[in-house]
Amino acid sequence: MAIVNLKEKTIQVKIVYCGPGRSGKTTNLEYIYNWLLKTQGQTTSKLTSINTKGDRTLFFDFFPINLGKIAGFELKIQLYTTPGQVKYESTRRLVLKGVDGVVFVADSLLSRQEANIESFQNLIDDLEYHQINLDDVILTFQWNKRDLDENMIPLTSVEDMEAQLNSTLKAQSFPSSAITGMNVLKTVRHLSKKTMEAVIEKTVSKL
Ligand SMILES: Nc1nc2c(ncn2[C@@H]2O[C@H](COP(=O)(O)OP(=O)(O)OP(=O)(O)O)[C@@H](O)[C@H]2O)c(=O)[nH]1
Ligand SMILES: [Mg+2]
Fold it and tell me: Which CATH number is correct for 3-199, 3.40.50.1100, 3.30.710.10, 3.40.50.300, 2.60.200.20?
């Protein structure tokens, strides 16, 4: 849940990158972090990867972004990844506590379609565990690894991925490549904006 501090005038929202193992969640965060480093020089925030084995996330990656001020309020976004491997359910649940927005990073590899579906069902269950409905979070899909198309690696079409995961939800979605950066910033910008708007609306309605 977003933290709105009226005294300190800060609004903090939590965005979590979910999806099956090796779908590209950590690579998304690394791309965003490197882009910020390049365009804004030194950033005060650090990309923290806790408990990583090889390139597998065992706990989470974390990275805060300051978005500046709106109406005197300082806007802060916290980006997290979950470990995609099925066996890390309890860790995934911990990371999802208080989530406001989710990027579901689905793997476009033909061989990973069942893993996408299983992982999405796990997400619904993990949210339910925290008594959060899927409708309560702002959701964006990424159909990731589209760059592999050029290497003649068999991928599932965007249309089929939409049909598999997003036919009833009709959430915003982006074909992406976390490696080349295609739509990586677009995804985080879109979701940050939507999540922040939802949080501000909820806060104002309670005042
Ligand atoms: N070609 C290609 N490779 C990608 C892309 N995104 C990630 N990868 C590669 O896929 C592998 C796994 O990426 P990660 O970002 O570590 O995946 P993850 O989702 O964080 O995986 P877990 O932490 O195990 O859940 C790495 O070798 C990445 O370089 C992409 O868009 N295109
Ligand atoms: Mg990872």
Answer: 3.40.50.300
